[in-house]
Amino acid sequence: MRAVVTGGAGFLGSHLVDRLIAEGWDVVAIDNFVTGSLDNLQHLEGNPKLQFIKQDITRFIKVEGPVDFVFNFACPASPDDFVKIPLAILRVGSMGTHNALGLARAKNAKFLTASTSEVYGDPTISPQPETYWGNVNPIGTRSVYDESKRFSESITMAYHRVYGLDTKIVRFFNTYGPRMRLDDGRVVPNFVGQALKGEPLTIYGDGLQTRSFGFYRDIIDGVFRLAMSGTNEPVNIGSNFEETILRFAESVLKATGSKSKIVHVAAASDDPRQRRPDLTRAKTLLGWEPTTGLEQGLAETIEYFKGKMALAG
Ligand code: UDP
Fold first, then answer.
1. Mean per-residue pLDDT for 162-191?
2. CB proximity list for 115: less than 8 A, separation 6 or greater
3. Rounded to the nearest 5 degrees, what angle is found at the Cα of 22, between the Cα atoms of 219 and 3?
4. Looking at ligand 1, which atom is closest to the CA of residue 267?
5. Is the dihedral of CA 178, 179, 180, 183 positive or negative?
6. Alpha-carbon torsion 52, 39, 218, 19, what sign?
7. Are strands 210-212 and 242-244 parallel, antiparallel or unpaired?
8. Residue 12 near residue 24 (C-beta atoms within 8 A)
């Protein structure tokens, strides 16, 4: 098997590359380093199973030779990025996904795209099943991500219907683990970094908004199972252990043994109040459930960030 992974030097993309190589696949990883880094693939240097191409997928994607599977994982995913580089996010979700689909079609390959719980927006029902159509503000600062991911799902289904392409859509919920960027802006690197530096943990708003945090290893296992499955329907992959951001901050303080304080700062705009996946479909179709508890996942993540901070001095 030979796969192309767009965003292959990113947090989840690089973990997917590892998993595919462990399964015996050859992998072509593509990244333009907007948020990815070759550090994430450094351990594979010289491995003949991996070919790396620096390329912006919003332009024609050129890959030589046969391809059996295209995994479309390129996209900045931090709400900080939605404000800093909104046009790049719109382009990669729309034109980038279009090009990745075109590559899959040209190579007669299967296709899996990384979508998001953000397609549900600020959900009015909980937990969120795949059949929920969402509650998205189409003109808010988050919309560049939400709407381009919704477009990416739409064009993926159109390629499936029009060209008969075998396509898959994974809807990730909050995911964390080693290889996230410390300065990424999302809550896990922020809180862990702040706790390790003895700085206050910044809670946006009242902290009563909820999230469910999935550990990358479980999540990548879900992706692999989905890739191997026969389904073309979107599938939620994430943890269904829901907690408030306030409780999560306390968990980070406990896990790091930090004496940092918790402070409340301005709420983020259009911040979803609740988020928890209905995992029935993943369980029924893929036999998949998350197994790593927050304590274990946080411990591994904290070790990783400690190492990064030591390197940075
Ligand atoms: N958040 C926070 N402090 C931070 C970063 C994030 O309280 O320093 C909150 C944010 O408002 C949201 C949740 O944590 O309610 C998760 O934010 P993240 O940026 O990780 O991703 P999101 O789930 O919003 O896409």
1. 98
2. 149, 152, 153, 169, 170, 171, 172, 234
3. 80
4. 11
5. positive
6. positive
7. antiparallel
8. no
pLDDT tens digits, one per residue of 226-256:
999 999 999 999 999 999 999 999 999 999 9
Biggest CA–CA distance in the chain, Å, is 57
- Cα distance between residue 301 and residue 178, in whole Å: 5
The rounded Å distance from CA 91 to ligand 1 centre is 24
Kindly state the helix (H) or strand (E) to which residue 46 belongs, with its residue range.
Answer: none
Read off the tokens for 174. 């909050």
Return mean pLDDT, the chain: 98
Ligand 1 binding pocket mutation candidate from 186, 208, 252, 275 (most atoms within 8 A of CB): 186
pTM of the model: 0.97
Q: Report the alpha-carbon distance of residue 12 to residue 126 in Å, rounded.
A: 26
Neighbouring C-beta atoms of residue 71, cutoff 10 Å: 31
117 CA to middle of ligand 1, Å? 14
What does the pLDDT look like over 260-276, one tens digit per residue?
999 999 999 999 999 99
Evaluate whether 13 touches 36 at the Cβ level (below 8 Å): yes
- Alpha-carbon separation of residue 215 from 241, 294, 298 (angstroms): 11, 8, 8
Give the C-alpha separation, 248 to 191, whole Å: 9
